[in-house]
Amino acid sequence: MNKKKKNTLSQEMANNQQPNSSNKEVFEAIYKKNWFLALLIFIASFGMYANSISNDYALDDIMVYTGNKLVQSGMDGMSELWSKDFLYGYRGFQSLDLAGSRWRPLSLISFAIDVELWGNNPHWSHFMNVLLFAICCVLLFYFLSTQLFPKYKLGAFFAVLIFAALPIHTEVVANIKSRDEILCFFFLIIGLISIFKWDNIKGKLLFVVCIFLSLLAKENAVPLLAGLPLLLYYFKDQHYKKIAFETGLLLAVIGFYLFLRLQIIPMGKLEASKEILNNPFMHANAMQAFATKVYLLAYSIVIMLIPFKLSHDYSFQHFSYLDLSSTWFIISFIFLTSISVWSLLKLKNKNLYALGWGIFIILYSISTNFVIEIGTPLAERLLFLPSIALCFIIIAIYKKMDETKFQKPFQVILIVVFCIYGLLTFQRNQDWKNDDTLSLADYPKCPKSIRLANRVATAYINMSADSSLSASKKKELLNRSIAICKKALAVHPNYNDMLSNIGVAYSRMDSLDICESYWKNFERVDPGNPKLVELHHFLFVRMYNKGLMYGSIKPDSAYYWFNRALPYAKAEADANFWYDYAGANYMLGHFKEAADGFAKTLKLNPAKKEAEMGLMAASEKAGIPLK
After folding, report:
1. Which of 14, 40, 165, 566 is most buried, most CB within 10 Å of its CB?
2. What is the distance between the alpha carbons of residues 274 and 283, in angstroms, rounded to a whole number?
3. What are the residues whose beta carbons fall under 8 Å from the beta carbon of 492, sequence distance 6 or more?
4. Cα–chain center distance at 202
């Protein structure tokens, strides 16, 4: 009887435990489903950047959005966006002071659609960036988990989570302008999925279309010419002739793109820029340039993995030139060379670590300044596409951990890294709120950067315009701006933006003479800059108003300021200015100049009877016969 009770009790315990076991199995089954993991990636990717949606325009958004006339035309500017240089709508000619030309119509067209749909609303544009980024992460997961690593879906899941959380991606997602990077990535991944998934005409056609669209977003897809055969070799059991054929398809697309690009827009100047901010190695000799570029390549890897002191700008003066004897060059060279040689030796065995390194070097090659000079020593946005390589490394480690039964601890480590990266990304998004917050956040990290110093000077000038501040606080902010400008101009005396800013700061302190001297230097350095129209207008209005302030009370002072305003008059001078100018001259006995001023007044406003009377009186005293 006791035995029967015991058996019954054991059976009840087993029945009680069965539902829990069943629930666990159901959960694991759902957890390992691609759609569920993809959903988690989408939520995580979108969530990390959700706080950037409330940000304003920042940095280069003025060039491609708010200040781009073609984009601001909405659908009406669409045809010209296809046929003009990337920044034609901003400056009306080639892309600033950079070598070559830039044909990237796709992102500009997306901005024009933004304008057409919701005008200049930065929040909708930020939302689109975040949405597209989240979709890109899902597509990357789909590509890795279904086409390359179907046996390691969880490995692919964790790899993409880390990729999505990398803080260096904030410049791409939180900056509206960098939608070109996102669109390039978006179409490139779809293209790769199609060539791997469908071994038929449909797959190849979709591949061709997507790669072409990727190139229309940005040229970053060009290095895939070397990356595609490597991926095909690793993951598709194909004869080398078939690999060559599919690589040939890619070559044909790139060739067609380059041909079309040269037909639509001119190549532009081929010589390097003479502005060091756009040609960072201008003052370096060949050995210094090589040593510095090697160090910057290693440094890029470091900040990708250890995101300390991230900045939107690493331009002139932040990095010093290195020599071949420099310790940092030697360390970087040994590190990079060792990994590269080891990877080459391991490629034959299809080693995943070697593949990860190869993909990184291939995709990043176009941005290292070794292949072409890109106008900047380093930019975080340029690591967006190459950082895919990190996914291969993580999956390789995950695979190794699975073989040695250390998979769970590795998953915990990856979750911790994801949380740290995600928190840093979430915080970094706040720096991208606007130009001022970004510059003030980054300047302490890169205090030697001349371009960043200029942006901080601008931030202080903008802050001084706050009407709620006291006069002493405004003066303090303007003095900070002037101090930063002077420090930077001592290093780079011909930096036109800095010359403009220091002039603005002095103008707000009512030091027009000093302001004018700096703006004359600006004009000497860059006589064709469209910003000069705005500066000349400002000087004209301020000097004219000072003349009016003195008027008939101090005609000599009025005359002085009217004459100071005269060189900036041009189209700004209306009938009122010439009438006041003539009046000041008449009061001082300059009758010939007075007659000339009254005549110009009447030319602009024939109905002004006072000018007609003044002309008669001044002409009579000057002995000039009236016509």
Report:
1. 165
2. 10
3. 276, 277, 316, 317, 450, 498
4. 35
CA pseudo-torsion sign 461, 467, 468, 473: positive
Please, what is the Cα angle at 465 between 462 and 466, to 5 degrees? 110
- 197-227 residue pLDDT tens: 998 898 899 999 999 999 999 988 899 989 9
CA torsion through residues 581, 584, 586, 591, sign: negative
Report yes or no: 382 and 367 within 8 Å, Cβ to Cβ: yes
Q: H or E element: which one contains 25? A: helix 2-31
Contact, 561 vs 543, CB < 8 A?
Answer: yes
What pLDDT score does 524 carry? 92
Distance CA 543, CA 568 (A): 9
Radius of gyration for the alpha carbons in the chain, expressed in angstroms and rounded: 32
CA 167 to chain centre: 15
Per the prediction, the chain carries an average pLDDT of 88
Length of the chain, in residues: 627
SS (H, E, C) 334-348: HHHHHHHHHHHHHHH
CA dist 118 → 79, 111, 134, 149, 288 (Å): 20, 10, 22, 41, 49
Q: How many CB atoms lie within 10 A of CB 234?
A: 17
Rounded CA separation 107/506 (Å): 38
Label residues 536-549 b or e (16+ Cβ within 10 Å = b): bebbbebbbebbee
Contact of 543 with 560, CB cutoff 8 Å? no
| H or E segment and range at residue 537 | helix 531-550
Contacts of 512 (CB under 8 A, 6+ apart): 506, 539, 542, 543, 546
Non-local CB neighbours of 596 within 8 Å, separated by 6+ positions: 582
Dist CA 148 CA 131 (whole Å): 25
Residue closest to 83 by CA, chosen among 110, 68, 101, 103: 103
Which pair of structure tokens corresponds to residue 448? 């030697």
Query: Within the chain, how many helices (H) and strands (E) appear?
Result: 29, 0
Phi/psi of residue 253, nearest 5 degrees: -65, -45
Which pair of structure tokens corresponds to residue 623? 């002995």
Query: Which 8-state DSSP code applies to residue 326?
Result: -
pLDDT score at 94: 46
In DSSP notation, 225-243 reads HHHHHHHHHHHS---HHHH
* CA distance linking residue 586 with residue 614, whole number of Å: 9
> What domains appear along the chain, each with residue ranges and CATH number?
34-428 (no CATH), 449-529 (1.25.40.10), 538-622 (1.25.40.10)
The residue ranges of the chain whose pLDDT is under 50 are: 1-6, 8-21, 27, 94-96
Tokens at 119, concatenated? 């005008």
Query: 362, 223 in Cβ contact below 8 A?
Result: yes
